[in-house]
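Why does this matter for the project? Reviewers at the last site visit asked to see concrete outputs rather than summary tables. In response, this paragraph embeds two records directly. Each consists of the residue sequence and, immediately after it, the corresponding structure tokens. Nothing has been edited or filtered.
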Amino acid sequence: MVGPTCIGKTKLSLFLSKKFKSDIISCDSQQFYKEINICNSKVNKNILKKYHHHFINICSVYEKFFNIYLYKKKVFSFLNKYFKKKNIIIMVGGSMLYEKTISNNLNLIKYNLIKNNKKDISIYLEYIKRKDIKIYNTLDKNNIKKIINYYNILINTKKKISYLFKKKNKINNFKVIKIGLYNKKKYILNNINNIVNLMFKNNVIFEMKKIFLNKKKKYINCIGYKDLYFFFKKNITLKQLIINMKYKIKKYYKKQITWYKKDLLINWFYNNNFNYIYNYIYKYLI
């Protein structure tokens, strides 16, 4: 279940979960964390009790970062057990790469980050040229972030990046139906404004301040994190914080649209046509 933020993916997932008597997996990377509930519009405790959700509240911001590699490993381990009992499961969330990692079984390149502690970027470029000339020839020499990223991969994996990119994704042992929700841009932007207003009405400031002030926190990277930081440091007003949060979420919405347009496997539906979507999936499964 994919689509831009504030489109109604959660409502549809609950509707389909009830219809198919199936569980729900979250692929929203912000909903993994127990302490963040308002800032990511997480479903409430009553819904979590009524519908079987997985990969929500599975770790803490005060623990080690729960990365995409660990997510993939745990999800596939869970699915192997789940499909022995049930035939259908619903995955929902707006973290694009997390969704695609499972639905397309992406071949992830794992490496330990080596920080850029060299002043001259030419050192990285020279190393890439020496180790993988094919990648070097296609690399934008002004893209410092990508240069350092490729350098990290070469140092850690000891394999050519061109070889790693050629490795095919594994084929899933289960069928995937991708359902995408859409609506007019005006509808989405209006929803974003309303949801951000609701977040502040529900005291998102108090929720995030508790985390910010705790020195033991290991991870926090929600949308608008920097703006919250500036607000707590009294560098911006509450009014400016709300404006900035709305702007950042709208920017993320545009990023999601660009990402999803590239995925030709998505079947798109108007976001309020739940019964039509259910019938489409049901016919596909027969």
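We now turn to the second protein, recorded in exactly the same manner.
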Amino acid sequence: MPMRGHYNVTGSGQVWGWLFGFPYAVDLSRGFARYNPGETTSNDLLRRGEVDAVFVLGSDPGAHFPFSSVKEIYNLPSVAVEPHETPTTEVCKVHVPVAFVGVEVGGCAYRMDNVPIETRKVVEPPEGMLTDEEFLDRVLARVKEIKGV
């Protein structure tokens, strides 16, 4: 079985697949899901200069994307939400450390063969450390407040 990268790399593809029918390269700009690899992947958009800001959640494009894309991320407003330092956290303008899923907080992760595994908290996170879900809830609440929704 081939390795697919870092922890739970299959998870996002599963969620995109359930929600929109496609595992990646999902374009929602027209109000419905379009799938066009070679046009709508993160690298395609970065290469063409079509990205205004970058929000990286539990991924490491700094380690896996071509240098031209990483350089573009460096030049854009960018946030990395990641438990530890990575090449991506080094190039993003803001690094938000969060609790480790499966160690400091429970959750669901997908094996490389697409089998979901429920994880449990093993140890307490450092005091004041948010989970990624708590952080995203706060971001969403602030966006709604700003938009008056």
